[in-house]
Amino acid sequence: MDSTQIIELVSYTLPSIIITFVGYTIFELYTKNEREKRQLLVQKETKTDILPLRLQAYERMTLFIERINPSQLLVRITPISEDKNDYANYVIAQIEQEFEHNLAQQIYLTEDCWTILIKAKNATIQAILFAAKNEKIRDANQLREFILKDLSEKQSPTNVALSYLKNEVSQLW
Q: Distance between CA 173 and CA 166 in Å, rounded?
């Protein structure tokens, strides 16, 4: 093979290789773009389906927080006996029951939000237990009064959780 034949072979082959490379690159970019479009459409459809469920979860957890707010809870649940420990245990059982009823809602909430809700629940229970251990409190009615007075003087953990919930819901828009 002489040099003119090699130059002739390269002059035919090189453009073919370049055209093939350019065509392959364009095809890859096109398919990648189409894949991304499909993913965006699926996400958009899913988001419109999931948003009502998420809002419902936030609504239910708002109701939960309102129901375990001591100012609501202690007015709603009257003492079943004069014993302060029986009353404290009964109120705590009501909080736990309410929480268990809403456990499935964690699927639709962010991890941080769920953690705040658990902390609010636990802080409320701890406040009730702390008040029940107070030696000065003799009966269930005094326990109710003490807890309500104590929480009126400082910010309730349920109020913090409710503010967090409202903030998260506002970010959904």
A: 12
Here the tokens at position 101 are 């009823």
SS (H, E, C) the chain: CCHHHHHHHHHHHHHHHHHHHHHHHHHHHHHHHHHHHHHHHHHHHHHHHHHHHHHHHHHHHHHHHHHHCHHHHHHHCCCCCCCHHHHHHHHHHHHHHHHHHCHHHHHCCCHHHHHHHHHHHHHHHHHHHHHHCCCCCCCHHHHHHHHHHHHHHCCCHHHHHHHHHHHHHHHCC
Residue 121 CA to residue 149 CA, distance in Å, equals 19
Summarize pLDDT for 48-80 with one digit per residue, the tens. 778 889 999 999 999 999 999 998 999 899 998
Rounded to 5 degrees, φ, ψ at 69 are -65, 125
d(CA 152, CA 154) in angstroms, rounded, equals: 6
Axis crossing angle, helix 157-171 with helix 3-68, rounded to the nearest 10: 140
**Structure pTM?**
0.72
